[in-house]
Amino acid sequence: MSFFSRFSGWLTWLLTALVLCSAGLYNGFPLVTSDSGTYLDSALRLVVPEDRPITYGLFVRLTSLKFSLWLVIFAQALLLAWLLLRYVQLLVPRLGHNRAVQIGLVALTTWLTGVSWFCSQLMPDIFTAAGVLALGLLLIGLALGRWERVALLLTTLLSALMHSSNLLTFTLVVAGFGVAAGLTGVFRRGVVQFRQWLLVTAVVLSGWLVLPALHAALGGGFAISRASTAFLMARLVESGVMDEFLSRNCDPADQYRLCAYRDKLPNDAIAFMWDGNSPLYQTGGVLANQQEYGQIIRRVLTSPRYYPYLISETIQAGLRQLTHIGHGDGLTPFRENTNPFWKVGEFTHYELKEYMSSMQNRGQLEFKTLNERTYGGQLAALAVLAALLFTGLRRYVAPAAVLAVVVLGLGVVANAFVTGGLANVLDRLQSRVAWVVPFVAMLLLVQYAPLAARQLLARVRASARL
Hints:
The chain crosses the membrane at residues 67-88, 100-120, 126-145, 166-187, 199-225, 375-394, 400-426, 433-453. Keywords: Membrane, Transmembrane, Transmembrane helix. The chain has helices at 3-20, 22-27, 36-45, 55-64, 70-91, 99-112, 115-119, 126-139, 146-162, 164-184, 194-217, 228-239, 241-249, 269-274, 279-282, 290-301, 307-323, 339-347, 352-357, 368-389, 399-422, 427-434, 436-465. With 466 residues, it is an all-alpha fold. It has a domain at 3-167 and 327-458. The model has no long low-confidence stretch (mean pLDDT 92).
């Protein structure tokens, strides 16, 4: 490879990364949510939070160099740029080495979707999409270099460890892919090597041990999250299952502290988890209720009478989550006397003026136009994929492209049912990964639209001759 070719590749990667963090540049500072302060605190003190992994805190500590929080979102953008450019190169071979068009496709994705708004956040949400994209590259059956496979496996593991929901989401993706590949003969025909799928699956499953081991090493106990029972309880409260349970189990012979609040349960999981007046905090908080909530959850999960409720609620929550792809959720001002304000000031005090003067903290961010594009882009993407995969054009689409759609689609659906079924139905939790659908649809459109046009023109000419 010539020096010029290598230089143009590095420059393309850098420019693509700048495009992906353009929302942060536009805002004037990396974006924050109410949870950002907790992650910054774990980065500062190296203490495992009660309700989330410490992994993103370690990532912030490492990539910021304890110098600037801008370096964190730029590191996220570099990782994502690498993944997206590899998709462009592998799924749109007709472009060759046209660097300008490669950057242009990522820039168009950035304009059409909210990817930059997640890449520019001091939050681990972008790693859900990064992990799904890495899984796709590993599983679509294209030849990858040895070191590239190693990098993708490490990216998958890192992304899985960033958020507890990612572990389950990625596990469902590799499991679903394995079942689909086995039933359709993908393994038998050698389109995807069974050993490669097995290796990827082993890496994903290892996260279930690596994360609690990391927490134990840092004094947080051998657990994915110490707040897992509280989150599950909050979901049972929102679904109404807990009302049914308490109505049957709050007699004097079988008392729980939660029984005293039987008629005061909040209507939604967010209020149960975060409102200081909720039963969770009135009875001592997350750790004080671990044992009782664990007992209640085990009784619910082992009682068939609740299965119809649980199945129904999980299905409808997952389907609802699939439609929640709006942007701006949680990106409100966080000025004085908020956790993000305190932690930004503590982490990089000289950046606090930038933080306070950002568009977010002046209340000047507006997402109506972006959300209109997002919904329109999602519908157009689904139409493009349906036309390419379920019509006569299907025979022209490369197997790798079909598999990429399958893996990314599994990631989007699995994320919806995991977050909707076990946590909350929120725009932020689904829009963080839903943008990969328009991205892959755009790549397939660029690769196969000329072929479709030629086929249509040939049919028109044939009809004219008749």
